[in-house]
Amino acid sequence: MILAVPFALTGGVFLQWLLGYNFSVAVWVGYIALFGTAIQTGVVMVVYLQEAVAKKRAQRGAEFGRADLLQAVKDGARLRLRPKVMTVVTIVASLLPIMWSVRPGAEVMRPLAAPIIGGMVSSLIHILIVTPVIFAWLREREMKKPLNCG
Question: Which one, 14, 26, 61, 93, has least CB within 10 Å?
């Protein structure tokens, strides 16, 4: 889940660089908000994946295998797709008017919004693709470990 932060940071730094904003207090506040949201969505994704695997394991019992694990991870990720996309779209849509504003105070608010917008887009890719892959890989490794009975 902590990998969500570097992925979000990548998108935030890229958009900040693209728009030519220097680091300032407003930019750091934007990064703090971004990191909180990225971690939260990562935690929720892992919870969905764990629940899907537990449900599939309960259905299959002793026959639970690699194919069942992968299917459960796909099902859990698919179930989280719409809420994650809606979260990102809502955040970006709410911050775009700030990015386009030319009213007094906009010179402070635009640098705050830039890392959040860029980071949410890269975080979307991480949460929907990278997190399920890493989760499946780790659970598959756990399945291969021999049981220690002594």
Answer: 61
Q: Which CATH number fits domain 4-139: 3.30.930.10, 3.40.50.150, 3.40.50.2000, 1.20.1640.10?
A: 1.20.1640.10
- What is the spatial distance between Cα 58 and Cα 41, in angstroms, rounded to a whole number? 26
Stated pTM of the model: 0.79
77 burial type by CB count under 10 A (0-12 exposed, 13-18 middle, 19+ buried): buried
Taking Cα atoms as reference points, which of 21, 10, 9, 11 lies closest to residue 112? 21
| Predicted confidence (pLDDT) per residue in 32-48, tens digit | 999 998 888 888 888 88
